[in-house]
Write a structure and sequence with these properties.
Elements lengths: L1 H13 L3 H6 L3 H12 L14 E3 L11 E9 L4 H12 L4 E7 L4 E6 L6 H10 L3 E2 L8 E8 L4 H12 L4 E7 L4 E6 L6 H10 L3 E6 L6 E7 L4 H12 L4 E7 L4 E6 L6 H11 L7 E4 L5 H33 L13 E3 L2 E2 H17 L1 H12 L5 H25 L9 H24 L2 H7 L5 E7 L5 E8 L8 E4 L8 E6 L2 E4 L1 H4 L5 E3 L4 E2 L4 E2 L4 E7 L5 H14 L6 H31 L13 H15 L3 H20 L2 E3 L2 H8 L3 E4 L1 H5 L5 E7 L5 H12 L5 H16 L10 E7 L3 E6 L2 E6 L1 H6 L6 H12 L3 E7 L2 E9 L6 H10 L3 E5 L4 H11 L3 E3 L4 H13 L4 E5 L5 H6 L2 E5 L12 E3 L5 H35 L4 H4 L5 H20 L13
Parallel strand pairs: 26-33, 26-35, 33-34, 35-36, 36-37
Antiparallel strand pairs: 1-2, 2-4, 2-5, 3-4, 6-8, 6-9, 7-8, 10-12, 10-13, 11-12, 14-15, 16-17, 16-18, 18-24, 19-22, 19-24, 20-21, 20-23, 25-37, 27-32, 28-29, 29-30, 30-31, 31-32
Helix pairs in contact: 8-9, 10-11, 10-14, 11-13, 11-14, 12-13, 13-14, 13-19, 14-33, 15-20, 17-20, 18-19, 19-31, 19-33, 20-31, 20-33, 21-31, 23-24, 26-28, 31-33
Length: 997
Amino acid sequence: MFRLLQALLKGFSVGTEYHDSVLGLDNKEMEVNGKDELMQPLLKSSDSVAVNISQSIGLNHNEDKKVQTVMFKIRGIECASCSNSIESMVGKLSGVVSVMVSPLEGQAVVRYIPDLINAKTIKETVKDTGFEVDDFPDQDIAVCRLRIKGMACTSCSESVERALLMVEGVKKAVVGLALEEAKVHFDPNVTDSDRIIEAVGDAGFGADLISSGSDVNKVHLKIEGINSPEDLTLIKSSLETLEGVNHVDMDLEGHTVTVSYDPDITGPRSLIQRIRDTGSGTHFYQASFYIPPRRRETERQHEIQMYRNQFWWSCLFSVPVFIFSMVLPMLPPYGNWLDYKVHNMLTVGMLLRWILCTPVQFIIGRRFYVGSYHALRRRSANMDVLVALGTNAAYFYSLYIVIKAFTSDTFVGEDFFETSAMLISFILLGKYLEVVAKGKTSDALAKLTDLAPETACLLTLDDDGNIISETEISTQLLQRNDVIKIVPGAKVPVDGVVINGQSHVNESMITGEARPIAKRLGDKVIGGTMNENGCLLVKATHVGPETALSQIVQLVEAAQLARAPVQKLADQISRFFVPTVVLAAFLTWLGWFVPGQAGIFPKSWIPEGMDAFEFALQFGISVLVVACPCALGLATPTAVMVATGKGASQGVLIKGGNALEKAYKVNTVVFDKTGTLTVGRPAVVSAKLFSKFSKEELCDMTVAAEVNSEHPMAKAVLEHAKKLRQNHGSPPEHVPDMVDFEVHPGAGVGGKVGDRRVLVGNKRLMRSFNVPIGPEIENCVSEAEQLARTCVLVAIDGRVAGAFAVTDPVKPEAERVVSYLHSMGISSIMVTGDNWATATAIAKQVGIQKVFAETDPLGKADKIKDLQSKGATVAMVGDGINDSPALVAADVGMAIGAGTDVAIEAADIVLIKNNLEDVVTAIDLSRKTIYRIRLNYVWALGYNILGMPIAAGILFPFTGIRLPPWLAGACMAASSISVVCSSLLLQSYKKPLHSGA
């Protein structure tokens, strides 16, 4: 009965759309995409079950109320009276629509209005009745990405992260300072993206939703012919009934529609046609592809323009203040008019400086007050606090001087208005230059995004494959299985397979491979690459976000958001950095003021017109503003951004700062053999018959066994056996299928063909099935192995019937790569499932000294663990399929030759090309990046370590040199700019090895 209730509830949710339309996001869609995004669940819950059902039912049939349903497990229910007591208690809660508890299954289904009550309160109420409630499960994990505004340093990003993690229902939050984004995993049963954005706002930062995790297959369409809201409702209903459409979101003002769909069932053109078909009579609707403006680029340009405008406005006021304060007084008689007294001791110059400085302090510098307020409210401190303290100290002390001069006819004092105004101007200039420089750190990613062409030539074919028509359409409107024509000099719009023609395609923009790659019938092509000389007809296999180009961009964006372990240093320092600086500034002021008042140092040290208080105050303000936590926070993420973007443009996808840092420490590289050190396309060079079985029979049994295997060597044997069969008579009409097929990892395959037992594999497989191997067979195997060939034995009914000698050529760059790794102080090891003799011959050929052969996939992982236990930091290089256990076990997993399948979960680094040189590139790039990060820390900390003592006046007693506050502000700005520019130098990175070098 309870199962039926569950089914009814689930069925009911499908037929209702109110809550979905309010949120603009389908819950089921969020659930699915959330799990895909998370890869692994955040919570390892057991048998708890939860569903999220959104519908249009409310109290008293109020359709304006949103209703959600949560289902969880309750322990300790023994009878119906237990369930009745729970239902009674929970049912009394305000906002609960209904509650049903099953005493048999120990489960509760509660429908509630989230605006009035949340799932946590319901859970606690059940606990109060004396029962145990399982934690909310992790099936319903949604993911959203936010653009965060107003972050200046590591302290800001940490504050945002803390604010996000404090939101009920948020499971995980990662905030990237340099990328200015946050990725949040949350339980949609408990919270939503609106509440998450609200939490960021409460923390004092701005937030905009970039994506909700359901944007994987989403298209935006502009609709023409809309005359009333009823037209949009009609179009929405029509689209929702189309098979493959998951969710429809309408924009009433912009007349646009956003549709999430299943690409296996429908596509953008089908959606456009559906909108056209919806019109009838006098109502005709037209839809066209609509590209929303790039928010990131728009916001960056807006930010650059904002800082530039603020700087120029600040200069408009600050430069006259500086001239009236520092220049004209030194140029008598030109500056004498500034000393004219307006009232008592208040001079014209003092009054002008006050008037000009005030707008800079309170209007242009308002952002520092707002930032300080929010920082202090969340009990943290950042750069805004330092700037606000320094400028306020200078301004309000100067204001005190003005008031004192106005009210006294004997007072003599010097104002610091130029300190406040110039300080704000220099900081704004620094922020402007920093934003411009930070924009360049993602240039490589932007170039990748722009590689795909805007249009494509779509072909319409008849049943015989003849071309009926050619149409130029937007690349965004292409659907899976479309046939497109690519002329010489045109870019490939999407990933696909060549179905006609041949050409050479330049894939350097994706893989970094300089030489054009020959493409023929059946070859794959990658979107964004350039067709060189021939005309190709390509069938689209991956479109939109599924293409290799989109996956590369997604991986790089995720990598740029991830926080490198080395950044922990900056995070730890930032926690006490600002309070320490404030304390140091106070002690500096005290250290100069007290001796000045006591007459410990000569009065000649104090400039004319100043007293000890003013003299000490300048030192204190300089200490406040010279120390900047921004540079410290930018040291790691900017370098990681540039490095991951540069690596992606050269065919090396590094999954974040963690992978970069681990690759830097690698001192041992373990190579797989087949497809890694070798070409991966083995070929049979000879075949031998051993028994009374005929060659035809040997070939038939071999074909029947190997047709089920995916191993490259099996495919080579299969092709050779087929050709051999054709050469020795006509092949049979039907080769019997193998039954009881078994794969023996690292050994071969076996099964029954008809009534015969067939084994195909190496000697280890034969021995495990007690198949005798005579001297003749031993000699044949030994001869093949000495020539670096693998001998594949075929046994029929317990006797070896024949053997195939298979060779897999070594990659031409393998020896050079192993030699270069050795020069980098990295040892190379081979681990393979092949036999010892073949493995040793290949290893000798490429220069590898240590070999582990005849090892199955799990054995490879064990070998890596053994190396790690001896203190080695191991990188595993494999093909990412049968090597996945070893890739996971290694400190750094490198999947080589991934082609268009770039989203290999097991690998930390994905090498798009099938080229070993990129192993060196990955390790070398990581070393260069870590070196650059450390250099950035030297720049960031160097400014503070050297600047703070100088600002505090340590050199003044000996040299008379002191750092004015406005110059200290310039130094603070320079520290951030120098760190970003240092990271940008990684853009000039060049591979240490080049093909054909």
